[in-house]
Design brief:
single chain; 306 residues; alpha/beta; Rossmann fold; 2 domains; 5-stranded parallel β-sheet; elongated
Length: 306
């Protein structure tokens, strides 16, 4: 069977382009940015995490998002035009869960503070604490959150968390709360990791009351920066409610140069890199292959939104 023409948006993680081009039986085109619109003429499939209305051509019948979030796509317009949309859910679990623990361990073992001392050539042993035997809260027990939970349990931690429908949860966490009870997770946890997306329901869900419910705990955010305000984090660090914060995401991004988070001694941070992995492309292609078969009537769609 002849492959339909597949256009991969020129802005993509490197591993995505490499993985698609390695599929020799697929008709893959990765145009230059200036040639994208011309390349889409006659193409049936677009692989992209970016969207402009002019991408909706008469020939387009399916969009494979490179990202988990699909808020950037005009879902109603796509549905009306008969264009399928599938997400990349399932591609982020291994690397984001590892990154979350990297940030948490940098806090609990004093790595962040030690590196600040190292830059100043200061020798100062900093005692760390242990994760084993402690309680970890996971905000958002979805695909990534459950991967974090499994790793935590393997390390001897007790896991609690939140899920939009707690009654449907089937995982390793010992207690699951609805989002409106997020503060309960903070009350019982020694450390909390947020993997929440940016939605109207999750913006600001980590309130100052939530952070204040901790007693020298740790907060890590590898979801979206909109879940918590910078000022609430700074206030919790100042009061001692938080012993430290590990942040990969911010609001806004890039983080302004004037932000106190850059130089805060009890903050470790990365520049929204938790989802990056050399294996991301191969995971996305596996999802794409399943959906390509489904589009031809063989098997079920994976992560189909419309």
């Amino acid at each position: 069977m002849t492959s339909p023409r597949i256009v991969v948006h020129p802005r993509h993680p490197r591993s995505v382009g490499e993985a698609f081009l390695a599929e020799e039986d697929l008709d893959v085109v990765i145009p230059d940015a200036d040639d994208l619109i011309e390349a889409l003429v006659g193409a049936e499939i677009l692989v992209s995490f970016l969207w402009e209305d002019r991408y909706l051509t008469d020939s387009l019948r399916w969009i494979q998002s490179v990202s988990v979030g699909v808020d950037q796509f005009p879902v109603a317009d796509l549905e009306a035009s008969g264009v399928a949309l599938t997400s990349a859910r399932g591609c982020h679990g291994p690397q984001v869960s590892e990154h979350a623990f990297a940030l948490l361990l940098a806090l609990t073992r004093g790595v962040g503070r030690s590196m600040r001392n190292a830059e100043a050539h200061i020798w100062k042993p900093i005692p760390g604490t242990e994760l084993g035997g402690s309680t970890l809260g996971v905000l958002g027990l979805g695909t990534i959150g459950e991967e974090i939970a499994r790793k935590a349990v393997a390390w001897g931690m007790t896991v609690v968390g939140t899920k939009s429908r707690p009654d449907e949860y089937d995982g390793v966490a010992s207690a699951v709360f609805a989002p409106d009870a997020t503060i309960e997770v903070f009350r019982v946890s020694d450390a909390v990791i947020s993997v929440l997306p940016d939605t109207p329901a999750t913006r600001g869900i980590v309130t100052d009351e939530c952070l204040g419910a901790m007693d020298g705990g740790w907060f890590v955010n590898v979801g979206r920066g909109t879940a918590v305000s910078e000022q609430d984090l700074l206030d919790a660090l100042a009061s001692g409610a938080l012993a430290g914060a590990g942040l990969d995401v911010f609001d806004p991004e890039p983080l302004p140069a004037t932000s106190p988070l850059w130089s805060h001694p009890r903050v470790v941070m990365t520049s929204h890199t938790a989802g990056l992995s050399p294996h991301y492309g191969s995971r996305l292609v596996a999802i794409f292959r399943a959906n390509l078969a489904a589009s031809n009537g063989h098997g079920e769609w994976v992560n189909r939104i419309v």
